[in-house]
Structure formats: structure tokens, C-alpha cells
Amino acid sequence: MDINCTEKELFIFKKIAHAAWELGMPAYLIGGFVRDKLIDRNTKDADIVCEGDGIELAKAVAKRFKPMPNLSVFKSFGTAHIKVNLSHSLDVVAADDSDEAVFELEFVGARKESYQYHSRNPQVAPGSLEDDQNRRDFTINALAISLNKNDYGKLVDPFDGVNDLKKKIIRTPLAPLQTFSDDPLRMMRAIRFAAQLNFTIEEKTFQAIKDNAYRINIISQERITEELNKILLSSKPSVGFHLLYQSGLLHIIFPQMVDLAGAEFKDGIGHKDNFYHTLQVVDNISKKTNDLWLRWSAVLHDIGKPATKKFDEEHGWTFHGHEVVGAKMVRKIFEKFRLPMDAKMRFVRKMVEMHLRPISLSREDITDSAIRRLLFDAGEDIDALMTLCEADITSKNKLKVKRYLENFKLVRQRCAEVEEKDRIRNWQPPITGEIIMEVFDIPPSRPVGILKAAIKDAILDGEIENNYDAAYNFMIEKARELGLSPKKSKI
């Protein structure tokens, strides 16, 4: 092989090769697996293209493994998918090699594929390896390895993709206008690969993206969002977002984020560019976590600033309430991007709404009550919130950043001390609504809510201890003010 494969991978490819030989069907490894192997990037899947029926080849390959692996067939797309459990299937491999990963194989027949100008659906026809390589998005993804008898293991590189890998360049195999016309999503894929691989997009290719950015409108939102999430999950997402902005794509797919861009000056007073501040926050948080939803929280934390920007002669530029406005925008943004409208959305909304709270607690005179309320409101998400707030500390002045981070360490320390003492995190009230209704023999009503809220506030404000007896005695006293008397003794 012209690429370095593990013993297990070679074992799998030999099985594929033998199945293809028996069927008289030329077959090749192609695309991402070949690319990643050449740049020493980890990969757990491989695409197989054959000049014939990909589903037929997949079925023949699956029969060669014992036990037979999972086989999924997608007739409408002419593809098949196999998951090979390396620890179960490769009985000829040395016993001390205990890799438990699942290796995934995708089979498809070589084809010609193109989009009509205003269509989201490709026109597909059977083709040769050459046709299949011509339709690939980039030269580095058009690389193929032969699995055929006469030249097994030979690299097929018609567009000098190996050289582009060495130069770290993203370039289309054919004229970029043709490649992007066939599938406009490839414009976003170019940016995604640049972000993931830390490559540069070749000048003519990038110009074609700028010239054709408007054509992204024919692509389904789900496909756009998938690429955007991959950019956001790269090691330095700002690379991808900066290219999306420069190309004009971001203006079309995410105008609310573009609205953050620019620094306005009035009477010699300016504010920071909130777009590039946001990119820095996203990069900061990406050093700490791979959690997609916490990264989305970083993207959206200041999204409400354009709507709240005002100039005050005394205080300069202000963005009062931007966290509340931003939190309200989260639902519509998630709806637009077809992101999950469940706990993940609520988590991001919560992070956006609360992202200023911990930073405001960095003063020395802050009370335990304020810390308790932060812990109560953040609940199990307090660590995520703290991570977001630390990432939000940005400045070109390194000493200023250092001072803010040191102050924020004190906030973390105070939170830990108060939590150890009062156990507010994931707090459950010692007196429930059911207990209140039973003690006073009343149905669900406004007084029940008033008493519950009063007990909660008394505990958070430190008026009473966080235990049943203290809460019960406080409830009885508060109930008298409402004209209620207990019908039962302590429960």
C-alpha cells in the first residue's frame, strides 16, 4: 500500500479486494481515509467506490466476516454501510492487539453527479473511477487507492492532491465554478476543511466561493447546519467563522452573527468589535471543552448586543439587558438552524441569560446570599456557566486579563465555600407544595406558591438554615400573615 495502514485495516481491505475480484468489479479506497492516512490523522471509517453495484459488493464483503457484521442498505442512494467490530471479526490478528473500536465502511458505485442550477437534488448516473474523482469536492478528497489485482495498493492521484496536502491547500479538482455549481454546499465544506485541517483555501477557489455565496440558498438547512456544527467543533473555530464572514456566506446563513461586526465611534468613544470578541470567546472555550452546546453558548452569548446598543453621554456605549434579549433570540435561532428544541436549547438559553452573573460577583463585598442565588439559578450547570464566563474575559491587555481571571478564581472559591456550607446546588426545598397543602388542609392555590417562594427566598438570603425544622417554623410564621393556621402538626 502507498499509505501506512494498521494490520487490522489491511486485513479488512484484503477481504474487500477478494470480494471485488470474485465479482469482477474494480474497487478503490477513496476520499477522507486516504487523505487522513497521508497526513497522519486518526480515522475510523473508509469509503469504497467500485465500478459497478456498491450494494452488491457490500453484501459480498459482509459474508466474509464471522460473525457477520451489521449491514445497512440504502437503495435509493445506491449505498451500503458496514460496521466491523475489530475485536470480534479479526480473529487472525495478534491477540495482544486489543483495539475495541468499530471500523465503518461505506460502499457506493462510481458515478457522475450534478445539480441543476436551482435544485437541491442531484442528478446521478453510473460512471468510472475517473468520473467519480472528477465529481469530488477537493483534490485532497479525490485521492484513491486501488484494491485491484493488477495494481493493488497503488495511489491514484489525477489532480496532484498529495502535493496540495504537503502545501496545506484546499483546491477544487475541476474549475471551482463547476465544482461549486454541482453542489453549493462544497463552499462550506471548503471552509470546514480549512478549519479542521488548518489549511489555506487556494485563491481562485476562495474567490469562486465569494462570487457564488448566494447559491447556498438552494441547500437544505439541515446540511448547512451539519457543516456549521463541524466548524464549531474544530480545534480553533474562529478560522472557519472568519472565512464564512469574509466569503459572504455568513451574511446569508447567520445574519444575526454578522450584526455583531464593527466598532462604532461617537464623540471619540468607541466600543469593541463584538463579532471578533465572540470569535475569541469561542476559541477560548474550545480549549476547555468539546461540548457542542457550550460552544453554541459562546457563539450566542452576546447575540443580543446589536438590539440593545445605545450611546450615553455620561457612560459611553451601553448594551443594557443584552443577556435577556439574547436569551429570547436563542429559540428562533435554534428553530432556523433545525437544532434540537429540547434540553439542549434550554441549556444554551440559560447560559446566554446568565453569562454576566458570575462576573458581576467578582467584587470583594459580595454577599453569601448573591452566591447562593447564583448556585440556585445555575443548578447543575454552574460549572458550564463558569467555563463560559472565564472564556468571556478577553482583552489585548494581558495584565488586565490576568487580573480578571484572578478575580474570577475568587468567585469560584466563594461558590465552593458557600456550596459546601449550604448545599444549594441542585437544591430541593425542604418543604414541598404537597406538605404545605397537607399542613393547612388547602387545595392548590396562590397561598401555596407564596409560602414556597418565601421559604426559598429565606434560605437563599440566609435568614434560615437549609433544613426541614427551620423551614417548617418559618412557614408557620409566614402563614399567620396570610391568615392561615395549621390543621395538622409537623409531618
What does this structure look like?
This protein has helices at 7-23, 32-38, 54-62, 86-89, 129-134, 161-167, 176-182, 185-197, 203-212, 221-232, 237-247, 249-253, 255-258, 274-286, 292-300, 305-308, 322-336, 343-354, 357-360, 368-378, 382-391, 398-422, 433-440, 446-460, 468-481; strands at 27-30, 45-50, 70-74, 79-85, 102-109, 111-115, 122-126, 144-146, 155-156, 169-170, 200-201, 265-266, 269-270, 310-312, 316-318. The chain starts with 6 loop residues before the first helix and ends in a 10-residue tail after the last helix. By secondary structure, it is of the alpha+beta class. It is elongated, with a radius of gyration of 30 Å.
Task: Present the secondary structure layout.
Layout lengths: L6 H17 L3 E4 L1 H7 L6 E6 L3 H9 L7 E5 L4 E7 H4 L12 E8 L1 E5 L6 E5 L2 H6 L9 E3 L8 E2 L4 H7 L1 E2 L5 H7 L2 H13 L2 E2 L1 H10 L8 H12 L4 H11 L1 H5 L1 H4 L6 E2 L2 E2 L3 H13 L5 H9 L4 H4 L1 E3 L3 E3 L3 H15 L6 H12 L2 H4 L7 H11 L3 H10 L6 H25 L10 H8 L5 H15 L7 H14 L10
Parallel strand pairs: 2-5, 10-11
Antiparallel strand pairs: 1-2, 1-8, 3-4, 4-5, 6-7, 8-9, 12-13, 14-15
Radius of gyration: 30 Å
**What separation lies between the terminal Cα atoms?**
76 Å
Strand pairing plus helix content: what structural class? alpha+beta
Main sheet attributes: strand count, strand direction, barrel closure: 7 strands, mixed
Q: Total number of β-strand segments?
A: 15
Mean residue pLDDT: 88
The spatial strand order of the largest sheet comes to 3-4-5-2-1-8-9
Shape category:
elongated
Approximately what portion of the residues adopt beta-strand conformation? 5-15%
**Total of helices:** 25
* pLDDT < 50 runs, ≥5 residues: 91-99
What level of helicity do the residues show? 40-55%
